[in-house]
Amino acid sequence: MARKLMQAVHYNSYGGGSASLKHVEVPVPSPNKNEVLLKLEAITINPIDWKIQKGLLRPLFLPRHFPHIPCTDVAGEVVEVGPQVKDFKVGDKVVAKLTHQYGGGFAEFAVASESLTAARPSEVLAAEAAALPIAGLTAHDALTQVAGVKLDGSGQPKNILVTAASGGVGHYAVQLAKLGNTHVTATCGARNIDFVKGLGADEVLDYRTPEGAALTSPSGRKYDAVIHCTTGIPWSTFDPNLTENGKVVDLTPGLSSLTTFALKKFTFSKKQLVPYFVTVKREGLAYLVQLVKDGKLKTVIDSKFPLSKAEDAWAKSIDGHATGKIIVEP
Ligand SMILES: NC(=O)c1ccc[n+]([C@@H]2O[C@H](COP(=O)([O-])OP(=O)(O)OC[C@H]3O[C@@H](n4cnc5c(N)ncnc54)[C@H](OP(=O)(O)O)[C@@H]3O)[C@@H](O)[C@H]2O)c1
Questions:
Q1: Which of 28, 110, 197, 203 has CB atoms 3.0–4.6 Å from 104's, for a disulfide?
Q2: In this protein, which residues make up the domain named Enoyl reductase (ER) (predicted)?
Q3: Residue 168 C-alpha to ligand 1 middle, in angstroms?
Q4: Looking at residue 87, which CATH number applies to its domain?
């Protein structure tokens, strides 16, 4: 049976940035046996979405084919379920992570795997939830799995540095770190210092000042872990600021950080650089949704764009100066 048509935004080849996004009408996708079809209410952009367009994951054959509808982090309402879906029914409000292979977020409807979909209670707005999957879980997993922070506050005290604390990942990292037994130092631009203090950071450095560039804690602390959400900071800057066993969790590992990682391993250094890539899981997503519902975590929204202006949202994300998350609404 022919499917109804929907509005979507796609691109046809690598490169081209926002100018190569095209508004199109395409058939509403059909859910496979373990998938739900969602009527989307909010979509967020993560840097990986436009990095895939740039060709960063071309060696991994991503995206799987062109044209490609980008974006993976969405919230909406279930309007159809595959025959083997057990936990969702038509009418449920949910948040989901689509796959990087097939994307699908920049559209009115998208199919999501049941295993990457979590229920969204009415207290959590669609935009607040859509922002969570990649950005929220990266912050959560980097803090808990690599930095060893226990979010129930039961762990040993730790000094944490969050770089680019005003961004999508950073603003969650500061809030989540403060649920644990931590002292948080954060870096951001001058205009965001009060904002980042408001998220709970104990001390904040302007990254354009000499102290900020040196990452020096104003209270003289050494960091047990750095949740490193920006790029271009050499190991020689981190090294003097770390405790004996300090770790830098690098969320954007390039050639130089991979070299440092190998060197630290090879020399049995106690200080480590850990390249980190998130794997989104449904349980983690449900946990973050619950934190938002309980008022323990908030999504800060930089800006909202209608789907008809998706290219403006895309350009804003590429520009790299968002405070919190950029949302697109069909
Ligand atoms: N490995 C993974 O699994 C994973 C997952 C998610 C994200 N990431 C990566 O993590 C990075 C951050 O992602 P995001 O979504 O948080 O990005 P984002 O939201 O675009 O970050 C923008 C923010 O970064 C701030 N900023 C830029 N350069 C800075 C610097 N040198 N020092 C301090 N703040 C700086 C900007 O502040 P100003 O406007 O003041 O400059 C802006 O508020 C990206 O490279 C992304 O690809 C990796």
A1: 110
A2: 16-328
A3: 7
A4: 3.90.180.10
